[in-house]
Amino acid sequence: MNTSAPDSAPASKTLSIRRLALLLGGLAMFGPFSIDTIFPAFPVMGAELGADKLAMQQTISVYLIAYALMSIVHGPLSDTIGRRRVIIGGLSVFTLASVGCALSTDLSTLLFFRAVQGLSAGVGLIVGRAVIRDVLHGDDAQRLMSQVTMIFGVAPAIAPIIGGWILGWAHWPAIFWFLVGFSLLLLGSTIFLLPETHPPQARLPLKPKRLLRDYFAIFLNPRFQRLTATGAFNFAALFLYIASAPAFVLDILKLNERQFGWFFVPTIGGMVLGSFVSGRSAGKISGDRLVRWGFVFSFVGVAMNLGYNLWTDAPQIPWAVLPMCVSAFGIALVFPIVTLSILDMYPRQRGSASSLQAFSGLVVNAVMAGVLSPLISASAVSLAVAASVLTAVAWLFWQWEARVSKTSCPSQGDEAAAVEPQESL
Predict the structure, then answer these.
(1) 318 and 328 in contact (C-beta within 8 Å)?
(2) Which of 160, 130, 157, 158 is nearest to 144 (CA)?
């Protein structure tokens, strides 16, 4: 059955779905690459720049705050001028910011260019989600979203490994030169391979008053709040460990700068496997049932994690990371369903809905990286407790949504049930 949107038929003909998945997955990857490739270099960078661990943690917080602030612009801008232009512009700025990071000689300069990286890094993930729903609907959209999530999920696993390899034969600025090369590759691929999926006749005028009104309407929609909170807090349980990776890997697990893969590979492997199962389940298992199973696996993972860390005073691999693999599998089952449900609420403002969802999640992640992680990352038990609480909060929001809607998760292709921001909510 062909479930492509009528206005996206030209795009689907000029670009195969498999190639689109690879391109959108690559575009989503350069954001995580910006965070994770520098983890192995934290000690070296801190010593050279005169920054302690807390100060180095701000290179992540500044990036995420800027990412979150600009994320509310990427989507509506793509609703107005088209997806392709926004992605090309963001990649260009990101490339120049990465050059600035590579040439930085003090922490203040590095933080400035990290913020510029954050301002531009969201275009691939945020606008890419809108591209998916421009091209496909229903089960096909779930499959493509899951494929992109699988590719995207590889980034946190391989990024610190790549960073460790680079650090083994070059100075830390070489990591940022790698990001320059990667973003240039994506820029060329976008220019030559990505068609415009949001035609002029479907675009909306960029009017600040209307944009603010629509944002308030979307954000104040109780269903949007419940779904967004479900996805944000569920992923935050994993992101807390990602943000705490330098302390978790180097201090708690007592590994070295080239052994970040012991944490990232099994953890992200669980997410990739979960995304694969989600894609294969499209059209066979209902969305609400997948979400329920996702939370089952997430709770099993956090229970294993908490139990192991309470049992031992010296966490060791692989036992310290296997529970997170299980949790990540569950998270990957939940996230595509929640995201598509949000986008289907606003078929004419997908960019805006994607931006606001991303902004909400990024604010939560910024708090994880900048506030919670520095406070608790020295203790394996504290990390496990915090992850358990975050998973429980996400589950409570989903239970709230299921109880209110009674159908939990409407069909991703049911645009008749969509609520436009300009309608009464």
Answers:
(1) no
(2) 130
Q: What is the pLDDT of residues 270-306, one digit of tens each?
A: 888 888 888 778 777 777 888 999 999 999 999 999 9
Rounded Cα distance between 157 and 175, Å, is 16
pLDDT digits (tens, 9 = 90+) for 61-85: 788 788 888 878 887 788 788 888 8
**Tokens 């960078």, located at residue:** 45
Q: Do residues 305 and 375 touch, judged by C-beta distance below 8 A? A: no
Least confident of 209-223, 246-260, 410-424: 410-424
Report d(CA 109, CA 92) in Å as an integer: 19
Q: Is the dihedral of CA 316, 317, 318, 320 positive or negative?
A: positive
Residue type, 94: F
Closest C-alpha among 131, 347, 331, 154 to residue 231? 331
* Separation CA 5–CA 149 (nearest Å): 21
397 Cβ contact partners less than 8 Å away, ≥ 6 residues apart: 226, 229, 230, 233
* Side chain identity at residue 401, one-letter code: E
Would you call the peptide bond into 421 cis, given omega within 30 degrees of 0 as the criterion? no
Q: Is 0.90 surpassed by the pTM of this model? A: no
Distance CA 234, CA 228 (A): 10
